[in-house]
Amino acid sequence: MQGRLLGVVTALSLAVPIICDPASCVSACQLTLSKIVFEDTAPDLPYYVGQCTSSLRIKSTYICSREFCPAREIQPGLDALNQTCIRYGGTALPPFSSISNITSGDVRSQFQVIERSDFLTHSKVNRPAIPSRSLFEDGLRTTEAYNISMGSSVLYAIAMFVFWTLVVAVGLGFRLFRFLNQNRDPKHNSQHQHSTALSPYSTFYQDMKRRIKQHVLIPAAFSRHCAEPLGWWIVPPRLQSLTILSFILLNTVLTFGHYDVFSGNLYWSNPRLQYARYIGDRTGVMGTANLTLIYLFATRNNLLLWITGWSFETFMQFHRWVARVSTVQAIIHSLAYTIYVLVEGGVQHYWSVWRQRYWYWGGIATICMGLLLVFSLYPVRSRLYELFLFLHMTLAVMVLVGMWYHVAIFDGAYNVLLWPCFVVWIADRAMRLARVVRCNLPYRASLATYSPDTDVVWITVPRVVAPSAVPHPGAYYFLYLLHGTTWYESHPFTLSGWELGDQEDEQQLPDTTATATKKENKNRQIQINLQFVIRPYDGLTSRLRDLVRRQTGESKTGRRLRVLIEGPYGPNHNLCRYDTIAFIVGGTGIAIALAYLSNMLDLALARQNKGEGQGYRVQHLHLVWAVKEPSFFQETFDRELKPRLTEIAQLSGRQLDISVQIYNTRAAAPAQTLVDEPGNGMDSSEMEPMVPSGMTSDSRYQPTEWESDEHSPLSASARTVTPDGIRVSMFNHRPRLENVVLRCASAEDGEKRICAIVACCPAGMADATRSAVVKAIAMGQGCAGIDFYPESYAW
């Protein structure tokens, strides 16, 4: 990443000479004469009228160009000067041939030589003039310094898009490479699943792949904090952090890169003014260019999500950090121009510019960006989400409006950096509306139930969809609650599963993982019931709970709700190829496991009924669930888990090891941390298992059978078994995730298995799982490979 950054910076440095304007030489002549007062110019004329109508000034500029400029640069320079005079002075310049009768001798005898002192004192002359060699060189250097500064600012703004294009290209390349290797790797073919021989890939390649996962792809940036905030910030995983750090370094280097500051500058002799102007211009252009990236990365219907297969949360991290960089650039831009105005004109001049529209709208845009930065900090997002959402939308609109009026003085030159923001925003809203229409026509009311014992709302949303629109596990939808005055608000919820309307429709269900089955009737509409499990907190979820509770009271009969859905969103991870799948979930994170179980069941039914389609090759299925309310587990187990697991086991056609571990975290010791570490001094009384109803009485076991550092029975014989052979164990403590992951990844029978760890749980638990996966990869654990899928959604 750093090597790529160095290459980009080097390429941009080499490109600087390309942006030199061929009109700079003629512009230098015009500059050296701009402060000279010629006798034939009325003092009350507007600036450009006086510059373009004085015959003495025009003749002097032409002679200067002929004497000092290369022949190939004269005409481009005069053309540019003529266009300026026509546009701002209302008159055209005479042809360059008008000075053909003036000889070099005439110049020496009739033209007054202008020195630097004459330029600074606004000397009055009554005849044609020509700058001295030293004054012309200062003028040329001044013009080129300014042109290069502005040209490089535009070039560096383009570099922001080049950087992220490379990032997306790498993501796409990695996705294609992984897809091709999955098809080539014999571990992904069923005929080799019992083979213990090494894959055809070299040992070096396998070792490098393991090390890249261990050190780059999976671990947190520099500590265990990744999903869990570190102070007021959420630190992305290591690869994301390296990408973001490279972007920050690139912006820093380009912002404070080369500036040609010298004392002979004819625009600003004070070096502080030169630095203020150059830095102010560059940060303004680069910060404006970053706005497009900010809006693009924040959209739900982001094409880059599909191209890379990355999660929305990944692009939200990019969105936040690009926004922070752009905000810092806006603040530096404002401070630089504040210094520039104060040094050049003083306090009185500074207050006078605030009356100009471009200035105060720029100030409004900067203030709004600063407020966006403050109100987007994690404590505000997590505790005041409704306020955050309202302010985020309002201030984002104000930023665009402010920037539109701020750059209006450039006559549309920088609108090209703002139009994409409007286009992206409008296109995303249009796509959202299209999704809402597609998902909700024909409309059917939803059914919601609320259990006071579990404090959980279950929602079933019936819809009629095309077979191609059947969701995938890991998908999430935005729900609109059409009750009350806040019907326009939407919140994301992970899909916990789905049911088809009838058995005939189930046979039409496509393979939603990666290889779709052939459908007999592609145009057929199917009835599907989308299921969501929601924990009420504040805002929409609390209103949802109160709405259901007011009608149903303490009963669980449920009530009809007017609900719109928008989706599905989220990446589609193909877990069909894994021998071992472990779901590590917390609370309502059980939704992700239920969704994958729905997918397993659908594919198993499709293979049984039609004999085609790809199914899961899983041999070991583990569910580790940390939950505060045992009643929530009991309800979910009886209602969702047990029926799905039982049917999956019956349809698998082979011996399927299914293990369910429930951890009652509310019964954990108060001093216990979120993730118990081995050797914390827990005795066996803290591990008393709970056996849910429906278990065989002879399957109870004594807690003294367990060692204090081995809580996971994944490799042991079943302690609590349902009549259907599903092993269920319950503990009154928090899970030791390192032990859990290591046991899931182990292959004690010597087989080369590949393992998927899917985590959808609270931040601390997710970070502990991530660390445990990294440790398991480092230890090898006899597995052919371990992949980690953190399933979460966050703004």
UniProtKB/TrEMBL annotation:
Family to which this protein belongs: Belongs to the ferric reductase (FRE) family.
Residue stretches making up the FAD-binding FR-type domain: 429-575
Keyword Iron carried by entry: no
Keyword Membrane annotated: yes
Name assigned to this protein: FAD-binding FR-type domain-containing protein
A cellular-component GO term for this protein: plasma membrane
Residue stretches spanning the membrane: 154-177, 321-343, 358-380, 387-406
Source organism of this protein record: Capronia coronata CBS 617.96
PROSITE patterns: FAD_FR
Keywords of the record: Glycoprotein, Ion transport, Membrane, Oxidoreductase, Signal, Transmembrane, Transmembrane helix, Transport
Region (Disordered): 674-718
Pfam families assigned: Ferric_reduct (PF01794), NAD_binding_6 (PF08030)
Region forming the signal peptide: 1-20
Bilayer topology term: Multi-pass membrane protein
Protein's GO biological process: copper ion import; intracellular iron ion homeostasis; iron ion transport
GO molecular function: ferric-chelate reductase activity
Localisation per UniProt entry: Membrane
